[in-house]
Write a structure and sequence with these properties.
432 residues, alpha+beta, Alpha-Beta Plaits, five-stranded mixed β-sheet, binds magnesium ion
Protein backbone atom coordinates (compact mmCIF):
# COMPACT_ATOMS: atom_id res chain seq x y z
CA UNK A 1 0.00 0.00 0.00
CA UNK A 2 1.26 3.47 -0.82
CA UNK A 3 1.87 6.17 1.72
CA UNK A 4 -0.62 9.04 1.51
CA UNK A 5 0.59 11.58 -1.05
CA UNK A 6 3.38 9.31 -2.26
CA UNK A 7 3.87 9.42 -5.98
CA UNK A 8 2.23 6.20 -7.07
CA UNK A 9 4.74 5.63 -9.84
CA UNK A 10 7.87 6.19 -7.79
CA UNK A 11 6.65 5.84 -4.23
CA UNK A 12 8.20 9.23 -3.51
CA UNK A 13 6.50 12.59 -3.21
CA UNK A 14 3.09 13.72 -4.43
CA UNK A 15 1.90 12.99 -7.95
CA UNK A 16 2.08 15.75 -10.51
CA UNK A 17 -0.88 18.04 -10.42
CA UNK A 18 -2.44 17.19 -7.13
CA UNK A 19 -2.40 15.46 -3.79
CA UNK A 20 -4.92 13.58 -1.73
CA UNK A 21 -6.36 16.32 0.50
CA UNK A 22 -8.37 17.69 -2.43
CA UNK A 23 -12.05 16.73 -2.23
CA UNK A 24 -14.75 16.98 -4.86
CA UNK A 25 -18.48 16.56 -4.87
CA UNK A 26 -20.00 15.17 -8.06
CA UNK A 27 -23.67 15.84 -8.69
CA UNK A 28 -25.54 13.71 -11.19
CA UNK A 29 -29.27 14.25 -11.77
CA UNK A 30 -31.32 11.04 -11.74
CA UNK A 31 -33.13 10.35 -15.02
CA UNK A 32 -32.62 13.99 -15.88
CA UNK A 33 -34.85 14.43 -18.94
CA UNK A 34 -37.70 12.41 -17.39
CA UNK A 35 -37.47 14.19 -14.04
CA UNK A 36 -37.26 17.56 -15.84
CA UNK A 37 -40.60 16.69 -17.43
CA UNK A 38 -41.99 15.80 -14.00
CA UNK A 39 -40.73 19.10 -12.64
CA UNK A 40 -42.22 21.09 -15.52
CA UNK A 41 -45.49 19.13 -15.54
CA UNK A 42 -46.51 18.56 -11.91
CA UNK A 43 -49.31 16.20 -12.94
CA UNK A 44 -46.62 13.64 -13.88
CA UNK A 45 -44.84 13.64 -10.53
CA UNK A 46 -44.64 10.27 -8.83
CA UNK A 47 -45.66 8.46 -12.03
CA UNK A 48 -43.66 6.23 -14.36
CA UNK A 49 -42.47 8.51 -17.17
CA UNK A 50 -39.99 7.94 -20.00
CA UNK A 51 -38.57 10.28 -22.64
CA UNK A 52 -37.87 9.01 -26.16
CA UNK A 53 -35.75 10.37 -28.98
CA UNK A 54 -38.16 11.23 -31.75
CA UNK A 55 -41.03 13.35 -32.89
CA UNK A 56 -43.98 14.13 -30.60
CA UNK A 57 -46.73 11.53 -30.97
CA UNK A 58 -44.41 9.09 -32.77
CA UNK A 59 -42.72 7.06 -30.06
CA UNK A 60 -40.77 4.83 -32.45
CA UNK A 61 -37.29 5.44 -31.08
CA UNK A 62 -35.36 4.35 -28.05
CA UNK A 63 -35.90 5.64 -24.53
CA UNK A 64 -33.23 8.15 -23.56
CA UNK A 65 -34.37 8.86 -20.01
CA UNK A 66 -36.52 7.03 -17.48
CA UNK A 67 -38.06 8.37 -14.27
CA UNK A 68 -37.15 6.80 -10.96
CA UNK A 69 -40.67 5.31 -10.75
CA UNK A 70 -40.45 3.76 -14.22
CA UNK A 71 -37.01 2.36 -13.48
CA UNK A 72 -38.34 0.68 -10.34
CA UNK A 73 -40.92 -1.06 -12.55
CA UNK A 74 -38.31 -2.49 -14.91
CA UNK A 75 -38.13 0.19 -17.62
CA UNK A 76 -34.62 1.05 -18.74
CA UNK A 77 -32.96 3.61 -21.01
CA UNK A 78 -32.22 2.17 -24.43
CA UNK A 79 -35.45 0.10 -24.55
CA UNK A 80 -37.63 0.67 -27.61
CA UNK A 81 -40.43 3.04 -26.63
CA UNK A 82 -43.11 0.71 -28.00
CA UNK A 83 -41.70 -2.31 -26.15
CA UNK A 84 -41.60 -0.31 -22.91
CA UNK A 85 -45.27 0.65 -23.33
CA UNK A 86 -46.21 -3.01 -23.86
CA UNK A 87 -44.31 -4.00 -20.76
CA UNK A 88 -45.79 -1.20 -18.65
CA UNK A 89 -49.10 0.13 -20.04
CA UNK A 90 -49.28 2.85 -17.36
CA UNK A 91 -46.01 4.36 -18.64
CA UNK A 92 -46.31 7.95 -19.92
CA UNK A 93 -44.17 8.35 -23.04
CA UNK A 94 -42.94 11.84 -23.90
CA UNK A 95 -40.96 13.19 -26.85
CA UNK A 96 -37.70 14.84 -25.86
CA UNK A 97 -37.63 18.61 -25.44
CA UNK A 98 -33.91 19.46 -25.52
CA UNK A 99 -34.44 23.19 -25.19
CA UNK A 100 -36.29 22.76 -21.88
CA UNK A 101 -33.52 20.56 -20.48
CA UNK A 102 -30.81 23.00 -21.58
CA UNK A 103 -32.57 25.99 -20.03
CA UNK A 104 -33.21 24.07 -16.82
CA UNK A 105 -29.55 23.02 -16.79
CA UNK A 106 -28.42 26.65 -16.75
CA UNK A 107 -30.86 27.47 -13.93
CA UNK A 108 -29.68 24.45 -11.93
CA UNK A 109 -26.02 25.36 -12.36
CA UNK A 110 -26.76 28.92 -11.21
CA UNK A 111 -28.61 27.72 -8.09
CA UNK A 112 -26.10 25.00 -7.17
CA UNK A 113 -23.36 27.60 -7.58
CA UNK A 114 -24.95 29.56 -4.72
CA UNK A 115 -24.18 26.62 -2.41
CA UNK A 116 -20.61 25.97 -3.59
CA UNK A 117 -18.53 27.20 -6.52
CA UNK A 118 -19.02 24.99 -9.57
CA UNK A 119 -15.70 23.36 -10.42
CA UNK A 120 -16.70 21.91 -13.78
CA UNK A 121 -19.80 21.26 -15.88
CA UNK A 122 -19.40 17.73 -17.18
CA UNK A 123 -22.63 17.39 -19.13
CA UNK A 124 -26.18 18.68 -19.21
CA UNK A 125 -26.96 16.90 -15.93
CA UNK A 126 -23.59 16.49 -14.22
CA UNK A 127 -21.46 19.05 -12.43
CA UNK A 128 -18.73 18.91 -9.81
CA UNK A 129 -17.88 21.29 -7.00
CA UNK A 130 -14.68 21.51 -4.99
CA UNK A 131 -14.94 21.26 -1.22
CA UNK A 132 -13.10 23.75 0.94
CA UNK A 133 -11.02 22.36 3.80
CA UNK A 134 -13.79 23.19 6.28
CA UNK A 135 -16.69 21.72 4.26
CA UNK A 136 -18.31 18.60 5.71
CA UNK A 137 -19.35 16.26 2.90
CA UNK A 138 -22.68 15.28 4.49
CA UNK A 139 -23.60 18.91 5.18
CA UNK A 140 -22.64 20.04 1.68
CA UNK A 141 -24.57 17.24 -0.05
CA UNK A 142 -27.64 17.96 2.09
CA UNK A 143 -27.37 21.68 1.24
CA UNK A 144 -27.18 20.95 -2.50
CA UNK A 145 -30.24 18.74 -2.34
CA UNK A 146 -32.13 21.28 -0.24
CA UNK A 147 -31.28 23.95 -2.79
CA UNK A 148 -32.77 21.92 -5.64
CA UNK A 149 -35.86 20.99 -3.60
CA UNK A 150 -36.61 24.58 -2.62
CA UNK A 151 -35.56 26.38 -5.83
CA UNK A 152 -37.18 23.84 -8.17
CA UNK A 153 -39.08 20.86 -6.78
CA UNK A 154 -38.53 17.44 -5.28
CA UNK A 155 -39.30 16.05 -8.75
CA UNK A 156 -35.68 16.79 -9.64
CA UNK A 157 -33.84 14.01 -7.87
CA UNK A 158 -30.07 14.04 -7.65
CA UNK A 159 -27.30 11.72 -6.58
CA UNK A 160 -24.14 13.12 -5.03
CA UNK A 161 -20.78 11.63 -4.23
CA UNK A 162 -17.73 13.04 -2.46
CA UNK A 163 -14.21 11.71 -2.95
CA UNK A 164 -10.65 12.87 -3.45
CA UNK A 165 -10.74 12.83 -7.25
CA UNK A 166 -13.48 13.93 -9.63
CA UNK A 167 -13.47 10.46 -11.16
CA UNK A 168 -13.92 8.75 -7.78
CA UNK A 169 -16.63 11.22 -6.80
CA UNK A 170 -18.50 10.39 -10.01
CA UNK A 171 -18.30 6.68 -9.25
CA UNK A 172 -19.45 7.36 -5.69
CA UNK A 173 -22.47 9.33 -6.95
CA UNK A 174 -23.28 6.59 -9.44
CA UNK A 175 -23.09 3.91 -6.74
CA UNK A 176 -25.76 5.66 -4.68
CA UNK A 177 -28.30 6.14 -7.46
CA UNK A 178 -31.04 7.18 -7.23
CA UNK A 179 -31.06 9.85 -4.57
CA UNK A 180 -27.88 8.83 -2.77
CA UNK A 181 -25.36 10.96 -0.88
CA UNK A 182 -22.21 8.87 -0.82
CA UNK A 183 -19.09 9.91 1.04
CA UNK A 184 -15.97 8.05 -0.01
CA UNK A 185 -13.62 10.23 2.02
CA UNK A 186 -14.52 8.48 5.29
CA UNK A 187 -11.81 6.17 6.50
CA UNK A 188 -12.30 2.49 5.82
CA UNK A 189 -14.75 2.94 2.92
CA UNK A 190 -12.19 2.64 0.13
CA UNK A 191 -11.07 0.61 -1.61
CA UNK A 192 -13.70 -1.98 -0.61
CA UNK A 193 -16.61 0.07 -2.00
CA UNK A 194 -14.89 0.05 -5.38
CA UNK A 195 -14.38 -3.70 -5.31
CA UNK A 196 -18.14 -4.25 -5.27
CA UNK A 197 -18.33 -2.82 -8.80
CA UNK A 198 -17.85 -4.50 -12.15
CA UNK A 199 -15.16 -3.26 -14.52
CA UNK A 200 -17.91 -1.98 -16.83
CA UNK A 201 -19.22 0.27 -14.04
CA UNK A 202 -16.05 2.37 -14.14
CA UNK A 203 -16.23 5.61 -16.13
CA UNK A 204 -13.88 5.22 -19.09
CA UNK A 205 -14.22 1.43 -19.21
CA UNK A 206 -16.67 0.41 -21.91
CA UNK A 207 -17.68 -3.18 -22.58
CA UNK A 208 -14.92 -3.76 -25.14
CA UNK A 209 -12.28 -2.24 -22.90
CA UNK A 210 -13.40 -4.45 -20.04
CA UNK A 211 -13.04 -7.50 -22.30
CA UNK A 212 -9.54 -6.37 -23.23
CA UNK A 213 -8.60 -5.84 -19.57
CA UNK A 214 -9.81 -9.35 -18.73
CA UNK A 215 -7.77 -10.76 -21.59
CA UNK A 216 -4.71 -9.13 -20.04
CA UNK A 217 -5.46 -10.73 -16.68
CA UNK A 218 -7.16 -7.79 -14.97
CA UNK A 219 -10.30 -9.72 -14.14
CA UNK A 220 -11.96 -7.38 -11.65
CA UNK A 221 -11.87 -3.87 -10.22
CA UNK A 222 -9.65 -5.22 -7.45
CA UNK A 223 -7.29 -6.70 -10.04
CA UNK A 224 -7.17 -3.31 -11.78
CA UNK A 225 -6.61 -1.50 -8.49
CA UNK A 226 -3.83 -3.79 -7.25
CA UNK A 227 -1.92 -3.94 -10.55
CA UNK A 228 1.13 -1.83 -11.30
CA UNK A 229 0.08 1.29 -13.25
CA UNK A 230 2.41 0.38 -16.12
CA UNK A 231 0.61 -2.94 -16.47
CA UNK A 232 -2.76 -1.19 -16.43
CA UNK A 233 -1.56 1.15 -19.14
CA UNK A 234 -0.50 -1.75 -21.33
CA UNK A 235 -3.71 -3.69 -20.72
CA UNK A 236 -5.91 -0.67 -21.37
CA UNK A 237 -3.94 0.20 -24.47
CA UNK A 238 -3.35 3.86 -23.67
CA UNK A 239 -2.32 6.33 -21.02
CA UNK A 240 -6.01 6.75 -20.17
CA UNK A 241 -5.80 3.44 -18.27
CA UNK A 242 -3.08 4.85 -16.10
CA UNK A 243 -5.09 8.02 -15.48
CA UNK A 244 -8.03 5.91 -14.34
CA UNK A 245 -5.70 3.96 -12.07
CA UNK A 246 -4.40 7.19 -10.52
CA UNK A 247 -7.90 8.63 -10.10
CA UNK A 248 -9.03 5.33 -8.55
CA UNK A 249 -6.25 5.66 -5.99
CA UNK A 250 -7.52 9.10 -5.11
CA UNK A 251 -5.09 11.20 -7.10
CA UNK A 252 -6.55 14.28 -8.64
CA UNK A 253 -4.96 13.91 -12.05
CA UNK A 254 -5.52 16.95 -14.21
CA UNK A 255 -7.02 16.13 -17.57
CA UNK A 256 -4.66 17.26 -20.32
CA UNK A 257 -5.79 20.49 -21.89
CA UNK A 258 -7.82 20.06 -25.00
CA UNK A 259 -6.08 21.10 -28.19
CA UNK A 260 -7.33 24.44 -29.41
CA UNK A 261 -10.36 24.06 -31.61
CA UNK A 262 -9.56 23.43 -35.27
CA UNK A 263 -13.00 23.11 -36.84
CA UNK A 264 -16.70 23.71 -36.51
CA UNK A 265 -18.72 20.93 -38.08
CA UNK A 266 -22.48 20.85 -38.68
CA UNK A 267 -23.92 17.87 -40.50
CA UNK A 268 -27.34 16.66 -41.63
CA UNK A 269 -28.78 13.53 -43.11
CA UNK A 270 -31.07 14.69 -45.94
CA UNK A 271 -34.46 13.13 -46.40
CA UNK A 272 -35.19 12.33 -50.08
CA UNK A 273 -37.40 15.42 -50.45
CA UNK A 274 -34.65 17.64 -48.98
CA UNK A 275 -31.93 16.65 -51.46
CA UNK A 276 -32.93 19.23 -54.04
CA UNK A 277 -32.52 21.90 -51.36
CA UNK A 278 -29.08 20.72 -50.19
CA UNK A 279 -27.46 24.02 -51.23
CA UNK A 280 -29.61 26.29 -49.05
CA UNK A 281 -29.35 23.72 -46.23
CA UNK A 282 -25.55 23.85 -46.50
CA UNK A 283 -25.73 27.64 -46.20
CA UNK A 284 -27.89 27.33 -43.10
CA UNK A 285 -25.45 24.87 -41.51
CA UNK A 286 -22.56 27.22 -42.37
CA UNK A 287 -24.42 30.06 -40.66
CA UNK A 288 -24.95 27.96 -37.51
CA UNK A 289 -21.21 27.23 -37.38
CA UNK A 290 -20.36 30.85 -38.08
CA UNK A 291 -22.37 32.10 -35.13
CA UNK A 292 -20.83 29.51 -32.82
CA UNK A 293 -17.37 30.56 -33.99
CA UNK A 294 -18.25 34.15 -33.21
CA UNK A 295 -19.41 33.16 -29.71
CA UNK A 296 -15.97 31.62 -29.14
CA UNK A 297 -14.10 34.64 -30.52
CA UNK A 298 -12.99 32.79 -33.67
CA UNK A 299 -13.28 33.57 -37.36
CA UNK A 300 -13.11 30.80 -39.98
CA UNK A 301 -11.08 31.21 -43.17
CA UNK A 302 -12.45 28.34 -45.22
CA UNK A 303 -15.60 26.31 -45.88
CA UNK A 304 -15.48 22.66 -46.84
CA UNK A 305 -18.64 20.77 -47.75
CA UNK A 306 -18.58 17.01 -47.71
CA UNK A 307 -21.34 15.05 -49.37
CA UNK A 308 -22.01 11.34 -49.02
CA UNK A 309 -23.72 9.42 -51.80
CA UNK A 310 -24.05 5.65 -51.57
CA UNK A 311 -21.25 5.41 -49.05
CA UNK A 312 -18.78 7.43 -51.12
CA UNK A 313 -17.58 10.78 -49.80
CA UNK A 314 -17.07 13.79 -52.06
CA UNK A 315 -15.92 17.22 -51.02
CA UNK A 316 -15.30 20.76 -52.18
CA UNK A 317 -13.57 23.64 -50.42
CA UNK A 318 -13.63 27.40 -50.83
CA UNK A 319 -11.68 30.11 -49.01
CA UNK A 320 -13.65 32.86 -47.30
CA UNK A 321 -12.45 36.12 -48.80
CA UNK A 322 -11.20 38.92 -46.65
CA UNK A 323 -12.67 40.81 -44.88
CA UNK A 324 -14.57 37.75 -43.74
CA UNK A 325 -18.16 38.61 -42.91
CA UNK A 326 -21.38 36.66 -43.10
CA UNK A 327 -21.85 37.69 -46.74
CA UNK A 328 -18.42 36.31 -47.64
CA UNK A 329 -19.10 33.13 -45.66
CA UNK A 330 -22.32 32.44 -47.53
CA UNK A 331 -20.68 33.29 -50.86
CA UNK A 332 -17.90 30.80 -50.19
CA UNK A 333 -20.43 28.17 -49.10
CA UNK A 334 -22.37 28.61 -52.35
CA UNK A 335 -19.18 28.29 -54.40
CA UNK A 336 -18.19 25.10 -52.58
CA UNK A 337 -21.71 23.73 -52.98
CA UNK A 338 -21.75 24.35 -56.73
CA UNK A 339 -18.45 22.46 -57.05
CA UNK A 340 -19.78 19.58 -54.95
CA UNK A 341 -23.05 19.42 -56.90
CA UNK A 342 -21.06 18.58 -60.01
CA UNK A 343 -19.76 15.46 -58.27
CA UNK A 344 -22.71 13.96 -56.43
CA UNK A 345 -26.30 14.18 -55.20
CA UNK A 346 -25.60 13.82 -51.49
CA UNK A 347 -27.80 11.99 -49.02
CA UNK A 348 -25.83 13.55 -46.21
CA UNK A 349 -23.83 16.76 -45.98
CA UNK A 350 -21.29 18.13 -43.53
CA UNK A 351 -20.23 21.74 -43.51
CA UNK A 352 -16.78 22.20 -42.01
CA UNK A 353 -15.51 25.65 -41.10
CA UNK A 354 -11.73 25.58 -40.80
CA UNK A 355 -8.60 27.76 -40.81
CA UNK A 356 -9.81 29.37 -37.61
CA UNK A 357 -8.12 32.51 -36.36
CA UNK A 358 -8.64 34.38 -33.14
CA UNK A 359 -10.98 37.26 -33.68
CA UNK A 360 -10.78 39.43 -30.59
CA UNK A 361 -13.18 41.98 -32.01
CA UNK A 362 -16.47 40.10 -32.49
CA UNK A 363 -17.34 40.59 -36.11
CA UNK A 364 -20.72 41.86 -37.06
CA UNK A 365 -23.17 39.54 -38.68
CA UNK A 366 -23.55 41.41 -41.90
CA UNK A 367 -21.89 43.71 -44.36
CA UNK A 368 -18.63 43.55 -42.50
CA UNK A 369 -16.38 45.15 -45.07
CA UNK A 370 -16.04 48.07 -47.41
CA UNK A 371 -19.75 48.02 -48.26
CA UNK A 372 -20.77 47.95 -44.65
CA UNK A 373 -23.83 49.94 -43.84
CA UNK A 374 -24.26 50.45 -40.11
CA UNK A 375 -27.96 51.26 -40.38
CA UNK A 376 -28.76 48.00 -42.22
CA UNK A 377 -26.52 46.16 -39.83
CA UNK A 378 -28.30 47.51 -36.78
CA UNK A 379 -31.71 46.85 -38.27
CA UNK A 380 -30.88 43.21 -39.02
CA UNK A 381 -29.37 42.67 -35.58
CA UNK A 382 -32.51 44.12 -34.00
CA UNK A 383 -34.75 41.86 -36.08
CA UNK A 384 -32.75 38.80 -35.10
CA UNK A 385 -32.71 39.80 -31.46
CA UNK A 386 -36.47 39.94 -31.45
CA UNK A 387 -37.46 37.23 -33.91
CA UNK A 388 -34.46 34.88 -33.97
CA UNK A 389 -31.96 33.80 -36.54
CA UNK A 390 -34.52 32.43 -38.96
CA UNK A 391 -36.33 35.75 -39.27
CA UNK A 392 -33.82 37.32 -41.62
CA UNK A 393 -31.04 35.79 -43.64
CA UNK A 394 -28.65 36.68 -46.36
CA UNK A 395 -29.95 35.39 -49.69
CA UNK A 396 -31.40 31.91 -49.48
CA UNK A 397 -30.61 29.69 -46.58
CA UNK A 398 -33.00 26.95 -45.74
CA UNK A 399 -33.82 25.74 -42.27
CA UNK A 400 -34.81 22.25 -43.26
CA UNK A 401 -34.54 20.54 -39.93
CA UNK A 402 -37.16 22.22 -37.81
CA UNK A 403 -36.76 24.76 -35.09
CA UNK A 404 -34.01 23.00 -33.14
CA UNK A 405 -31.28 23.05 -35.78
CA UNK A 406 -27.90 23.04 -34.13
CA UNK A 407 -29.41 22.47 -30.72
CA UNK A 408 -28.75 18.89 -29.90
CA UNK A 409 -27.41 17.95 -26.52
CA UNK A 410 -23.85 16.80 -27.00
CA UNK A 411 -21.97 15.00 -24.27
CA UNK A 412 -19.29 17.61 -23.96
CA UNK A 413 -21.07 20.84 -24.76
CA UNK A 414 -24.23 22.41 -23.42
CA UNK A 415 -25.50 25.24 -25.65
CA UNK A 416 -25.67 28.62 -23.96
CA UNK A 417 -28.93 30.42 -23.24
CA UNK A 418 -27.97 33.03 -25.87
CA UNK A 419 -27.60 30.28 -28.46
CA UNK A 420 -30.99 28.85 -27.58
CA UNK A 421 -32.60 32.27 -27.77
CA UNK A 422 -31.05 33.00 -31.16
CA UNK A 423 -32.13 29.71 -32.67
CA UNK A 424 -35.66 29.78 -31.32
CA UNK A 425 -36.54 33.40 -31.88
CA UNK A 426 -40.12 34.14 -30.76
CA UNK A 427 -40.60 30.52 -29.63
CA UNK A 428 -38.07 31.16 -26.90
CA UNK A 429 -40.48 33.17 -24.79
CA UNK A 430 -43.09 30.44 -25.08
CA UNK A 431 -40.69 27.67 -24.08
CA UNK A 432 -39.14 29.45 -21.13
MG1 LIG B 1 -27.74 11.66 -14.81
Amino acid sequence: MLEPNAHPLSGRGPPPGGTRPQRYCYIDMDGYFASSEQHLRPELRGLPVAVYAGMPGRPGGALISVSVQARALGIKSGMRANDAKLKLPSLTLLAQRPVEYILLHHELVARLGEVAPIHHTHSVDEVSVKLSSSDRPDVLMAALREKVDTSFSTALSLSAGVASSVWLAKVAAESGKPGGATDWTQSGVLPDALFELDLEDLPGVAERTAARLRKYGLESVQGFYDAQPSRVRAAYGSVVGERIWLAMHGYDVPVPRKRPRQLFVHARVLAPDQRARAGPIARWLALCGWLRARDEGLRPGSVRIQGTEQGKVFEATCAITHPAGEKQLLGATSTAWMALREQCLPAQISVVLGKLVQDPKPHDDLLDGPSRDPAVDRALAAIRERFGLRAVQYGGTCDATGPWTGLKIAFDRVPTVAEVRRMMGPDFARAS
